[in-house]
From TrEMBL:
Record's keyword annotation contains Disulfide bond: no
UniProt main location, coarse: membrane
Name used for this protein in its record: Membrane protein YeaQ/YmgE (Transglycosylase-associated protein family)
Xref: InterPro entries: Transgly_assoc (IPR007341)
Stated family: Belongs to the UPF0410 family.
Xref: Pfam families: Transgly_assoc
Originating species: Paenibacillus tundrae
Domain of life per record: Bacteria
Membrane topology type: Multi-pass membrane protein
Membrane-crossing segments per the record: 6-22, 29-48, 54-77
Amino acid sequence: MWGIIISIIMAVIIGLIGDALAGHNMPGGIIGAMIAGFAGAWLGALLLGNWGPVIGNFAVIPAIIGTALFVFLLGLVSRLFRQAA
């Protein structure tokens, strides 16, 4: 039970840090940060591997980099949709 709670807290923290690095383009507030944190951790582990400190089953440095990349790409896609409409 504590593992799930720690994972969710880490996803929110990593999501907020990644959003700050990417220029605050992420919608959804805390829930959006949590989703971005989980997606960014997956993307970061896929691209960079699992190195650095691990907290709550997240390799912190690749997760932050992956989240910043995810939020940046999400911001680009949302701007494209806004221009098309």
